[in-house]
Amino acid sequence: MTTTLVSIRYPLSDDGHRTIQRGLEYASDADDSLIVLHVRLLQNGSKLTRQQFRSAVENEFGQIPAHYIVRQGYVLEEAIIDEAARQSADRVIVGKTKRGRFRRRLGQLFGLYPNLEAELSRNLKTTLEIVE
Fold it and tell me: What predicted TM-score, i.e. pTM, was given to this entire model?
């Protein structure tokens, strides 16, 4: 039995779609568990509920054997790490971070945007997979 945690953005994008697909590949056995996570960043002011999130995913995929979590947080990386630990996840799957070249360069200069993949790799106590 393995637990796979898939972190996606809302509204669901093509990247999120591919990330969920990868999670479904790992959660093919009846004993496996798939958790679909969205981190609702407090500074963005979103009011997304778990039911709205679940409905959006199920509109794309139909009913899938997954648990849905909408978690609030200020820092995306910390929220994913905390939820992975809370759920005893064996694997965490996230989409590749994509930012425009200009935004990425500004973020590097001013330290505004931490590298999600690097932070998760350093701090997760489980397998991390990045979906491109």
Answer: 0.85
